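User: Predict the full complex structure for these chains.
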Amino acid sequence: MSGEVAGPSWQPVPRARAHELVIAAIEGQILAGTLTVGDPLPPERDLAARLQVSRAGVREAIRVLEGQGVVRSHVGSGQGAGTFIAALPSTGLTRFLRLHVALGNFDLDEVVESRVALERTSAALTARHAGPEDLAPVTAALEAMDEPAIAPETFNLHDTAFHVAIAWAGGNRLVAEMTTAIRDSMRLPLQAAMRQTSDWAQVCAELRTEHHAIHTALADRDADRAAELTEAHIRRSYAVLFPR
Amino acid sequence: MSGEVAGPSWQPVPRARAHELVIAAIEGQILAGTLTVGDPLPPERDLAARLQVSRAGVREAIRVLEGQGVVRSHVGSGQGAGTFIAALPSTGLTRFLRLHVALGNFDLDEVVESRVALERTSAALTARHAGPEDLAPVTAALEAMDEPAIAPETFNLHDTAFHVAIAWAGGNRLVAEMTTAIRDSMRLPLQAAMRQTSDWAQVCAELRTEHHAIHTALADRDADRAAELTEAHIRRSYAVLFPR
DNA sequence: GGTCATCAAGAGGTCTGACCACTCAGAGTG
DNA sequence: CACTCTGAGTGGTCAGACCTCTTGATGACC
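Assistant: Here is the predicted structure of the four-chain assembly.
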């Protein structure tokens, strides 16, 4: 309690926990390129022994990385068993957004603005680069929504599929992952809003029309129009479904 | 091995692991709204007893949620000790992107396109909504980069700060978080590229000019110009620093 | 009465060692 | 040759002990 006055600046030492050291070790190998997609991690017991931590610490680290979609574990023996570097970004990102949206860390306006930014890009990319075969899932979702007297739940499902399919057709995986995660995190809130809508048939009809217009723009390879229509569609949807 | 032919469709049962059940339990409380930011979780031992799993399972679940920035643990006793619902989206998102970029799940073009989409939006939002006081950190980063004969590492640091500050000045936390995470995940690759540039002084001067132009557009509250300049700046930077 | 050292309690952090469940490879068997 | 069985190695789970940290109460001392 004495050296506070003008002493040498003591920077707080991190005091890392065991599992954080393990994460850092694995992350280091990944960033260094010595561990790439498909590679196996050593067995938990080995890793624990090598890093001088308990197996519990190793397992906690693996859980965190698994939660981020970086790693994937399989029980069993021989070929295929063990923990491997994976490429499953969706798993982690979706839960991440779902929880933080639910916690109110991001409110509706922010989500809408983000969706607009990402999906404008998706739409433009898809219009420019996607051929008819890439548009097949988009078309399929579009037609599924044309079912007469469709229930909000079903519609919402295909609606999600429609937007997600456009995102992936654009060929940009990062944009697509973020779009998927955001749209997915909004599925339940959107569904609740749809169920509370007074005139569902009317709303449904409008959404259908807008979807068809977007689809046409994509098929016409008109990037600007597709982007504009997508932005208008998203903004209008939220305005209708979440009136203030 | 007999009932395969036209038997009743057996859907695979999930076989969830213990920690996943714990996550689901906590996530359920969050989605239901009974657990919000600042609330404490029961002590690990209690939670384990209530959910009928071992403490290890509870700890693995908490680690996953901590990795996503949903929860935060503090040792000790009394007020302030324990595990709490938190709102730290950055922590998780940054590592997520850093690792997946390193793993090559997202390549450079995809990252650039995403940055353009997000930062165009940030720039426009900032130009529209931010007052001079919100622009202070942007200005500070700008001036820090004007230091003559600045080292690439230092420049890169302030460059990151500049773009991140714009993102936050826009007032959209989701866009800002994603922008921060992406920019941060590119810091090391960018730094490496800057160090390898043949004519650093020249590149540096160009980047400075573009930054100043963006700053002026923001101060002028010209959203369209700010967005256009930002897009051009990002695309040009990558074209110069990562020539093919 | 105030101030300070001390200590107990309660929280997370760690480790150990055991056992279970699953899966594959290969030995053994008809 | 085909099938079955078994062993071994992997992650999954658990129980229990102990450590460290932090707080708040206790009580001695001034």
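The first strand of chain A starts at residue 71 and ends at 74.
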